[in-house]
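Troubleshooting log. The previous structure file for this entry was overwritten by mistake, so regenerating from the original sequence record. Sequence copied from the archived sheet and checked twice against the printout by T.R.
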Amino acid sequence: MTRSRTGSRAPDARAASGLGGKIMILGPERVAYAGLLGVPTRRSFGCHTLYAALHAPLRLTVAGTTWETPGIAVVPPYTPHQVSTADRMIGVLMIEPESIDAARLPQWLQPGASPVPAAGRPVGERVCETFRRLVRGDFGRDLTGVDIDLLFFGRMLERRTLDARVAAIASRIVQQPYAQLSAEQAAQLAGLSFSRFLHLFRAEVGATYRGFRAWKRARSFLHYANGTPSLTALALEIGYPDSTHFSHSIRQVYGLRPRDIFAGSRDLAIVRQPGEAMRVPHH
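Regenerated output below.
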């Protein structure tokens, strides 16, 4: 078994032994997770987040309003929220906003939609059952090439075409989330003035440059969720200045401390799909 200098296991190693139980399919534009929710405090992801009840209804609180549903609930990107279930098991589907055309999203996935609109119920049943089948291992052992949209929705979501200059910078951040690329440096690479770059980036991506970088860095932590690394070494490996900043940032995003995530993910199978960037550790 190979390990990085942080002590975490190679991301696909656990998945090779079988895919029953807790599982995460980690791709460059989608993440599908079925397993323990834990007891998160308020969290905020930089993606469209679809929560699915596996057995017990889920409770979702957004802006002081709480809904309960036995199906699915959708939270727009960068929206603080809190979620819970009685049995602490949940399905989570994360969709990167820069990869889809928001204007052509299905109504139930539109920002501001009710967590369980009537039009989304058939989709909700399919999504919940797909997560249950993942937990049972019904789809076999090799999910590296599966299309997550087709698996859960039976169709692919329409893609968005970004401005080429913004797309190049966004792709660089996605592939190297640990890199220290300032907004000034990014503007120079894009051949734009600083103010024009910031305005165009936000208009195209739907997030500030700083917020986008922070989310992609925190997202890269998912590669290591089932390991037992040194927090200090892992913080440096994925671009945080120290373990204190790392722990604070991860808790702000996921609503859980890194140590709590590690504890709940010890037997999590991680399937890393092609194109999903991961830093090559220095040994």
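The domain at 15-161+212-272 is CATH 2.60.120.10 (Jelly Rolls). Archived copy saved in two places this time.
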